[in-house]
């Protein structure tokens, strides 16, 4: 084997002495650990792998090894929803290669970045350690990237210590990112821009980061060059962007195209008009006419004082403020690229679960740290008037200690940037909702757009249109190929299918 085919793995090896390991007395709260038992489990595990940028495994491989004593799979399942929250894989060295030292190893640990429970990763590692200890293993090894500070901190907390082991690996497409590194300015981009430039770089599309802080970059392939800001490209016209920029204009354009929209009025300094609108609808939404990322939006207002306070806050962001009828349901984001649906996801408002010890404010801060770590710093729950209002509406204050197991929604808006979580429902979305989103995209004449609807359920046809985002975030929609379809739109000949057509023999 030639030397250039090898590389030194940039990982650290850690070992847990199972003879001295002591299980924790703390039990999982809100979830439990069990073995992987079904194809649905395998698919859920692969979805978590994709969301973490990891290599997926053929479902039949999981199934073939489900009863194996050499390879062990555990999953964490949510008590209430049944969702798979995380997974860990372990290998018994004695059964695999007759290890004289009677060791074992943790091969893979992953937790869903949208997970709302604390301690899932820790409990998975502990369960695997206790599994191997009960079978007489002497130690459990693992390999972790040298710069994965969060994982290293967890392992050291559990009693792992670093051992002087170095691994030489053969280069292949799976481990390519371990021995190659994109240009340094890629690391300065936010996750939404980084996702796109990584896909472009993988295809051989030239990338020039023109302003990393703002998320601007230029992509070039063949004789074509396109400037982008995240998912907003030169293919989107100034007119289309202007329509999306003003929520009142957006509403009129899509209503004319036949979409269902909520009743709306512009906020005025007239208590009578505001009170009449509130009386008619019972609950309302206040939002700036211009703005994004959920800033200045207040949902579910039920009193005139709440409305007036929300209008005051929204006017700090936009000179025009809109008041809409509030539609009960779920917040659905549909990503439309080239006038076709690519991804659909339900966005859920941030919530915390009490442990009987921490205050709501402390729980929010802990959840914010976890959300920020899972989203590259893009998602945090702000402690502001809107959060205080939502908590107060439930009869609590930020200083209140939430009873163990009780869950409270701390904001009504479901935007990722204000702590919301996002859950893929592309395979479940009703055809009428897909039609509405694509119709809205064509009415605005915009090739890449995020259409927000309020729906009773993603699988039902009922909806009202909320807004259109001309620069939708393409990250956090795993396993849907959002970045791939975006680069396909910009450079149709750069994809695998184009290459296959070029190599196919002519008839």
TrEMBL record:
The keyword Amino-acid biosynthesis does not apply. InterPro entries: Acyl_CoA_acyltransferase, ATP-grasp, ATP_grasp_subdomain_1, DNA/RNA_helicase_DEAH_CS, GNAT-acetyltransferase, GNAT_dom. GO terms for molecular function: acyltransferase activity, transferring groups other than amino-acyl groups; ATP binding; hydrolase activity; metal ion binding; ribosomal S6-glutamic acid ligase activity. Transmembrane segments: none annotated. Gene3D superfamilies: 3.40.630.30, ATP-grasp fold, A domain, ATP-grasp fold, B domain. Keywords: ATP-binding, Hydrolase, Nucleotide-binding, Transferase. One of its GO terms (cellular component) is cytoplasm. Pfam families: Acetyltransf_1 (PF00583). Residues 31-185 form the N-acetyltransferase domain. The keyword Transcription does not apply. Residues 251-500 form the ATP-grasp domain. One of its GO terms (biological process) is SOS response. This is N-acetyltransferase GCN5.
